[in-house]
Design a protein that fits this description.
Distance between the termini: 29 Å
Oligomer: single chain
Radius of gyration: 17 Å
Order of helices and strands: HEEEEEEEEHEEHEEHE
Helix content: 10-25%
């Protein structure tokens, strides 16, 4: 079972770095079910995050893929220069009054991982808390250090495993519960102080048009 959890991390770590540039817990199973999936037309388009100096750090172009799924092309920037794009599948999930994004590797990443690693590559999911207006999107990822300590101290109870780092670090938190368990967890802890990190805010790029995504 440890190998399965390791495979999940192999799939998600590059995506976390591309999307938020930080470390977040991942989920072995998706957060969404048919009854919790939503589609929000206002999320379609091109978005950018800028640092305090006004320099672009990341762009995200969101396209509609089908009735309940979007494709997001994420491009990180360093010193004003764009890096390699990463494509993610994005599902909008509504649990009560709270909205979340479920991110997972897009078809190109899944295919590449499958070619390179075969059955060792098990794509996992990252959950982001979402708030938005027509021209701004704010996302918060799980604060992995806080969650690891909370699980260790039993301040939070959730099915999980810690995948140890090869360099002897604190390890990566993988929530291993079922989709139903994950929905209960995020409903119960959506307002738990410390679970989510500081927000990353994106503003809409005016005049940019996002075309529908190609079907995988």
């Amino acid at each position: 079972m440890q190998g399965l959890h390791l495979a999940a991390v192999v799939a998600v770590v590059p995506l976390v770095a591309a999307v938020l540039g930080g470390c977040s817990a991942s989920c072995l199973h998706p957060l969404y079910t048919k009854d919790t999936l939503r589609f929000d037309e206002s999320l379609i388009g091109s978005w950018e995050n800028k640092n305090d100096e006004g320099l672009t750090t990341m762009t995200v172009t969101v396209r509609k893929a089908d009735a309940t799924r979007c494709a997001a092309e994420v491009v990180p920037y360093e010193h004003g220069k764009p890096g390699a794009p990463t494509t993610l599948d994005v599902h909008l999930v509504e649990l009560g009054q709270q909205r979340f994004l479920d991110l997972s590797p897009g078809a190109p990443a899944r295919e590449d991982l499958g070619r390179r690693l075969g059955t060792l590559a098990v794509p996992s999911h990252e959950v982001l808390e979402l708030t938005s207006t027509p021209d701004t999107v704010s996302v918060r990822q799980i604060d992995e250090d806080w969650l690891r300590d909370a699980l260790k101290g039993l301040r939070i109870v959730a099915e999980h495993t810690i995948v140890r780092d090869a360099d002897g670090g604190d390890g990566h938190v993988v929530l291993t519960g079922s989709t139903d368990s994950l929905q209960t967890f995020f409903k119960d802890h959506a307002q738990t102080k410390g679970l989510f990190a500081d927000p990353l805010v994106f503003t809409r790029v005016k005049g940019a048009e996002a075309k529908p995504a190609a079907k995988p």
